[in-house]
Amino acid sequence: MAGGSDAARAPPPLPPWPPAPLRHRYFALRHGESEANVAGIIIADPAVGTQRYGLTPAGRAAVAAAAEAFAASALASTGEASHPVALVASDFTRTRETAEVFGETLAGLGKASTLELSEAMRERYFGELEGGPNSRYGEVWAEDSQDPRAEPFGAESAASVWGRTTGLVSRLEAELPNDGRLVVIVSHGDALQILQTAFQGVSPAEHRSLQHLRPAELRELQPSVAPPAQAAG
User: The domain spanning residue 200 has which CATH number?
Assistant: First the structure.
């Protein structure tokens, strides 16, 4: 009886991801310090986040430093004949400004880039917690760890974020020329942590077990050889 009940609650497995070896190198870049970070508030509603709460001067400086480090490491290893870096960013103000600063810094170093704004990489929606203290993120994360389909406080589920962010990468794989491009995905903490679970082959329920991305931190996303992720831990 109990076994049947557990089976009924168990979610179906997520599809294998990536379905084939990736043709490009992917990097996650969390936005630099924003005005919302300084205020300690949750800004996840696109109606607000796409219009306000951009980067602080310190956030801009940190993003520029990340771009310089990227040019000196990842870009240097590809040689001068490399293709333009593909920047794909959430259309929130803080991520758009991050991508712009990153691209401008690369341009100043003689490195070309392109920029696409994508709703698929927007901040995770936190429902009733919008505008409240960011100390309440933990309440949602606790529910994630039990069931990535959960929507506490009307928040977007971790499974939903997994679907849209992996969908973005799959689209880039299909649309970008097959030339081994460097792709920098500029987004938000939860969106990038959850996308990283897909690369590492673990459940989105475990996103808080991964090393946290600091503001303006750049991290390469490398696919794991682990079995495909499941929707619940």
Answer: 3.40.50.1240
- Alpha carbon 69 to its chain centroid, in Å, reads 20
pLDDT in tens, 62-118: 999 999 999 999 888 765 447 899 999 999 999 999 999 999 999 999 999 999 999
Residue type, 147: D
- Domain for residue 231, yes or no? no
| pLDDT number for residue 9 | 55
Alpha helices (runs of H) in the chain, residue ranges in sequence order: 2-9, 35-39, 46-49, 57-70, 76-78, 93-108, 137-146, 158-175, 189-200
**Would 8 be classed as within a structural domain?**
no
In the three-class reduction of DSSP (H, G, I as helix; E, B as strand; rest coil), residue 55 is classed as strand
Number of domains in the chain: 1
Domain of residue 61 covers 28-220
Is the pLDDT higher at 14 or at 130? 130
